[in-house]
Amino acid sequence: MVTERSSHGQNFLRTRRDLASLGDHVRAWRKIHGLTAQLVADRAGITRTTLRALETGTGTVSLENTFAVLRVLGVADAVVGATDPLTTEMGRFHAERALPQRVRVPS
Prior knowledge:
Blueprint lengths: L3 H29 L4 H8 L3 H9 L6 H11 L2 H7 L6 H7 L12
Helix pairs in contact: 1-3, 2-3, 2-4
C-alpha cells in the first residue's frame, strides 16, 4: 500500500529528476546553437546565475524565466505544444465532452 508520505516522496524524486533532465536539455540546446551562457542570459533578460540554476535543475527558477530562456533557444512553442491536451488521444477523448468551468475535489 502506498502511503501519502511515500507517494509525495516519489513525486519529489521524479520532479527532481525531471528538473535535471530539463536543465540538461536546455544546456544541450544552448550548445547546439553555439551560444555562451552569458549570451543566452543576456538575451533572456536574466543573470548567468539564474541560467546556471535552470541548467543544473535546482528548481528555483521561475516559470517566466524558464520560458524566456526557452524562447531564446527557439523551443518555447514546442514545450507549450507538448502540454496541449488535444495532441493526445486521451485529451481529445475527454475534450469531446463539455469541459467543466471548475474542477472540485470530491469530498
